[in-house]
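FW: tagging you since you asked about this chain on Friday. Here's the raw sequence from the shared folder, copied in full. Didn't touch anything.
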Amino acid sequence: MFSRSVSFVVAGAAGAATLTAASAPSPLYPVYQRLWGFSAFVLTVVFAVYVFALLAALLTVGSLSDRVGRRPVASGALVLLALGMVLFAIAGGTGALVVARIVQGVAVGAATGTTTAMILDSAPNPRFGSVVSSAVPSLGIVIGAVLAGALVEFAPLPRQLVFWILTAVYLVLAALVWLIPERARPEPTSRESLWRSLRPSAGLPSAVRPVFFALIPSMAATWALAGLYLSLGSSVLGAVLDVHSHFVVGVVLGVFFAAGAAGTVVSTVTPPRWREWLGYGTLALGVLVTMAAMLLTTLPLYVAGSAVAGLGFGAGFRFAVNALGEAAPDAQRGEVFATMYIVSYLAFSVPALAAGLAAERFGLEPTAVAYGALEVALILIAAVAGIIRAGRQIGGNELPTVVDEAELPCRTS
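HL: got it, structure written out here
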């Protein structure tokens, strides 16, 4: 078995690699459109079926690791993800692409809550655990977008190589996660109760509910913007900003998510009372700058706005993960994070699907600008919800929902 520190590294790698699959196809979408002649709306449908499959997995197996252990769920999900990559590599049309996205979505849905719980279980302290668990989604998406863009532009087998590489990575990680010690052995589970747990459901422990519901606007604001970048982002860069290099497209998409990873780190050195507002402020500013860049057709301004918005994405998501991680009982973390991802991925997919439909009727640039305006409205709602929550805490003489992690006792295995 791995030591605690090695287990933490492997869990973080598994968490990042899982989300690498989410962005790897993004630089290829314009290629698929040219090859198979589908519209922007069909593109967002291909994007959305992945998310709906992911949500189905979260609703059924999202909390399974709380019952049978982290290792079998994480390993099985990584093997299934490898299968999804093979299907991408051999895809020969839109139908095959949809099937690959469905398999990928089920695998990512099974893995996300489990790998997040594994990271927190093996973390040396709560502060480091919350930073890494918040940063790995953005880091994984950066790797996927940049790697795919580079291979499509410069490598042989431009539509297949990235998926063969990821297939090998997932199979190696599927073996390595078996060497991570379980935090606590689950109670023996009868076959009947196990099958009952697989019925579609989502739940939250009562202690977590006030924190969770107060954070829904924040989760919606951050993930709705990420959905736009991964669904229509490459099309916006090509059609609106006249970028035709797949590598540059991958890099620009990566800027947003790389800044997201940086935002999680920046939030750790920000005073606790300002962490939530760091996320909202930079997210809103970045969106406004990217809207101006699209109207002015200025790529450098768009990149700058993406970086600022990404900083807000990372800071906002880390705030939510930290709040829920501290509120959740250790034995129910898988369930809590699975529910968190259900809300996040609904925000990730539904607005993007609507944007794809709108782009067919109104055009890509007006749709992207209107999407930005919707994003700013979501941020304002999240900010108002934060102000109301803070007022209730002060009025009721309650402790703040999120405290400085340095003041929290370190959980040990």
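FW: The chain has one domain: 4-183+206-400.
HL: agreed, and Residues 4-183+206-400 form a domain with the Growth Hormone; Chain: A; fold (CATH 1.20.1250.20).
FW: great, closing this out.
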